[in-house]
Structures are given as C-alpha cells and as structure tokens.
Amino acid sequence: MAIAARYHGILEAAEDVLGRRGYHQASIREIARAANLSLAGLYHYVRGKDELLFLVLDRALDTLLGDLDRALAEAPTAETRLLALIRTHLDFGFRHPQAMKIINRDWELLDEPRRSEVAAKRQAYVQRGLGILRELDRHGRSGDELLSATNLLLGMLNGIARRPFLRSSEDPRDLAAEVAALFLYGFLERSRAVVPGGEHDD
Amino acid sequence: MAIAARYHGILEAAEDVLGRRGYHQASIREIARAANLSLAGLYHYVRGKDELLFLVLDRALDTLLGDLDRALAEAPTAETRLLALIRTHLDFGFRHPQAMKIINRDWELLDEPRRSEVAAKRQAYVQRGLGILRELDRHGRSGDELLSATNLLLGMLNGIARRPFLRSSEDPRDLAAEVAALFLYGFLERSRAVVPGGEHDD
DNA sequence: GCGCAGACCGAACACGCGTTCGGCAGGAGG
DNA sequence: CCTCCTGCCGAACGCGTGTTCGGTCTGCGC
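The joint structure predicted for all components is written out below.
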C-alpha cells in the first residue's frame, strides 16, 4: 500500500506542476521535488515525462467522465441533463483547475499510441453533449449542426473555467443555471430558472 | 526598403513557427531558417525571443482590432454590430490561425513591461464586445453579468476557431450567422436570419 | 548470518536551447 | 586607396533539460 500511496502522490504532484507550468516548461526535477522524491527516484516509478502526462490526463478524464455519467444518471429530462453537464464541467473546472488546463491545453502533446487513447475519451465526452443536444433539438438539425452547437457549448464552458472571471461572488451552481439559460433561450430572453421545478437540495 | 521587407518576412516566419509549435517548443533557429536567415543574422534585427513574440502579438492584435473597428463602423444597429464582431473574429481565425493561437495561448508568457501592453489591447477587444451586449441588453443586467456573457460569447468563438471542426463545408459568413442566432435566441429557438435585412453582398 | 530484491539517490551524459563574439563582404564617403 | 558602416554569418559558451548508470540502504525469506 505504501507504494500505491507514493504513486498517488506522484500523480498529484505531476498534475499540479504540469497544470501550473505547462508540459514543456515543467521539468521532471520540479515534479520530483513536489513529490518528495529525488530525480532518479521518480524514474523508479515512471518511465518518462510523456508517461507522466498520460497518467495524469487519463486519470483526469476518467474522473470527469465518471462525474458526468453519475450526474446524468440522476437527471430525468433532457433539460436537467444539460444542466447536469454544465454543472459537472464547471464543478470539475473549479475543483481541479490544473487538470482542466492539462485536458484543454496539453493533450495534443502526447505521442501516438497514447494520444489516440485520450482522444477517444475526449470524444466520448463530446458525444455525451451531442446526445443531450439531439434530445433537446426541436428543429431536426443535422449531425453536423448538432456537433458544432456542442462545440459552441463546450467552448463557452472552457471560456469560463479558463480564468477566474467572477469566481469571487458566484458559486458554480448559480453559474451553471445562468449558462444553461443563456444557451437554451439566448441572450435576448431572460428566464432565471432553466428547469422549472427540477431543483433538489443537497 | 529592403530592410523593411526583411523585417516583414521575419515577422511572418515568427508568426508561423510560434503559432504552429508554441512559444517554448519553437526555437529561434527554426524561426531564422523560416525567414531565410542565419541564427546570428536574425539577432541583427531582433533583440531576443520574447521581443519576437511581442512583435507578432502586437501586430496581430492591431490587425484584429482594426478589422473589428472597421466592421463596427459600418454596422448601424446593435444586432449587426454583434454579427460584425462574430464575423470578424471567425474571419481572422480562419485567415490567421497561427496568430489566433498565439493570441489565445501564448500572450501570458510575455514578461512584465510588454505583457501589460498586450493585455490592454486584449481588454480593448473585450470592451467592444461588452459594449455591444450592453446595447443589446433588455433586462438591465449588471456590468458583471454583461462581462461574463461577453466571456461566454468569446469562449464560443474561440471554441470554434481553435480546431477545424466543420471548416470543410461551411464558410465563415454562414457560420457567423448561425453563431449569432444561437447566442441571441438560444438553442431551442431557430431563427435563421439574425439580421432581418441587413445583408450586403461583396 | 546471508543473500537477494526493491526503494531510492548522487552524479553524470548527451543534447538542444538562447545568446554572444569576432569576423567577412561590399558599398559609400573622403 | 583607405576607412567606416551596415547586413550578415560560423562558431562557440553556458545552461537547463530528459534520461541513465552505478551504487547504497533496508527489510524479508531461508
């Protein structure tokens, strides 16, 4: 179990350093120091720098997809599922900002066997969004149109999560409802509550 | 004038290489090679790598802001101004994809005297968007709400411009109208033409 | 006690990087 | 003809990097 704890600590350190500095600025020496290990000691657990990136990326995407599917399973309607996706995404972004940065910024830097693996998980995430929008669609949009709308939505979410715009006063719950309202009804309308009665307190 | 041509070529080369590889992966040697100069020859024109980044960034932001202000000046209503902003942004993204990447990805890497300078130009751009949304607002939104809506909108745009999702079939004009419609009226509504009669052919 | 295996480390290697230095061509001015 | 200046280059310096090698501990089976 001690080895597993070490491994876990290494992944945490790598996520933090890789997220804060970016893949190419982050040095393996810095990750080792953050994990309370020597440089060569870190190499005892990990084959190289790209494996470190892969491990962090893989774990983060598993967490994100897991959170999402758990939230989706509890949402009965398409509207609540959309809200659940937005909420999960923003929540993850606020709770694991470094992991989010790595997902959005550094995943292309992996080399080929592994790159496809995380690309598949990224695509699975997009598919969840696309499925929800397909349910929500009332105008018979084509797959291409739905896909670009999905990318628009995810772009909005990443635009928020990227930098701390309004993190000061707002909490992710309210923010998610606001984003959902804007996406569903547009900027010109204003309907505060997206889901008419679907709120449950925790 | 030959010196000006050289300078221009250097900026083009730097924009291309910096955009494609990112600041820290791009080497000055590669930029020099792309500009048909030797390594030391490049240093004859430029003080260092960060100055290269600054020059590219500054020129790109000037172009973007210039394009935007020119398009805004011709747009009579708030709706057409919104459409103009979206169009300009997407157009710039399609025409100068490398410059767009640098603007969105690498500007934070500048060191302090210059960083503030490009931050100011970036903020000026956001202010244009915020002003348009303020005109468009029918619900007395607060400055914070308008700012976050602006960031949502810009996030959507960058989400598209980032990767070639649908570049195959769509052209920026149609795409811009689609984005504007989705932003103004929401996903649930569908109004094809955002601006009822404001189209002029070129 | 003995040996072995695994956790861990200090020191080095090879390499690519940003930057600098000394110099070479060639045209202009005296 | 000499000199200066500008555009440009080959070669090097110093440094930080990812990675590896040889070794030292410590604990456990026999």
